[in-house]
Structures are given as structure tokens and as C-alpha cells.
Amino acid sequence: MRAELPSSTTVLDITQALTQQDGIISKMAKSLESLAVHYDQMDGALRELEEGGEPFSNEELQGAGKDALYRLHSSLILVDRDEQRHRGATGDPKRT
Q1: Residues 3-41 pLDDT 10s
Q2: d(Cα 89, Cα 11) in Å, to the nearest integer?
Q3: Is pLDDT at 89 greater than 70 in this prediction?
Q4: Do residues 21 and 14 lie in contact, with contact meaning Cβ atoms separated by under 8 Å?
Q5: pLDDT score, position 6
Q6: pLDDT category, 95, cuts 50, 70, 90?
Q7: pTM to 2 decimals?
Q8: Quick check: 88 pLDDT over 80?
Q9: Where are the beta strands (DSSP E) in 39-83?
Q10: How far is Cα of residue 17 from the mean position of the Cα atoms in its chain?
Q11: Angle, vertex CA 18, rays to CA 76 and CA 30, nearest 5
Q12: Over the stretch 35-52, which tens digit does the pLDDT of each residue have?
């Protein structure tokens, strides 16, 4: 049974781990919030168009689509990186 226990040399500073996790979680939340704001702005622009505003050109729509994809991709990279840091801070090697 003792062989199954973690080594006694492994010391976990709970305060440090929780502080580190809190910072990582805050960064992830800010990234996701930024992405949500961007999509709200895109939704607002499309609603204005539907309500009789000046139509967007194909170039504007393509630019907006590329920007949205870039922001989504960047946010996902940040969230993935922060998740890996979070798992490292907790000692959890699993990925979901």
C-alpha cells in the first residue's frame, strides 16, 4: 500500500498552487470575455444591417469573418495554454 502513495519528498504548497490557479483562471476568463465582446459587436453590426442599414460589401464581410476566425483561434490557443498551466500547477496530468 505504501508503494502506491506519492513520494514523501513531494511537497505541495497549497497557497502557492491556489494563487497560481487563480491567475490562470483570470487570464482564461479575460480571453473568453474578449471573444464574447467581439461576437456581440458582430451581432450588433449584423442587426443594424437587417434593420435597413447600409449593406456590407463582400470585402467587409470577408474581413469580418477572417477577424472573427483569427480571434477565435487566438482565444482557443490561450485557453489551451492556460489549461495546460493550470494542470501543471495542480499536478493533474490528464487532459479533457
Answers
A1: 776 666 556 678 888 888 888 888 888 888 888 888 888
A2: 13
A3: no
A4: no
A5: 65
A6: low
A7: 0.46
A8: no
A9: none
A10: 20
A11: 30
A12: 888 888 888 877 777 777
Written as nine digits, the cell of 17 is: 498552487
Cell of 74: 487566438
Task: Take residue 59 and report the three cell numbers written for it.
Answer: 470585402
Kindly state the cell numbers that stand for 88.
501543471
Angle subtended at Cα 45 by Cα 44 and Cα 47, rounded to the nearest 5 degrees? 65
In 3D space, the residue among 95, 89, 76 whose CA is nearest the CA of residue 17 turns out to be: 89
d(CA 87, CA 85): 5
CA 7 to chain centroid? 34
- How many Å apart are CA 79 and CA 30, to the nearest integer? 10
All 3 cell numbers of residue 51?
Answer: 434593420
Q: Which residues contact 86 (CB under 8 A, 6 or more apart)?
A: 21, 24, 25, 28
Number of H helices, E strands in the chain: 2, 0
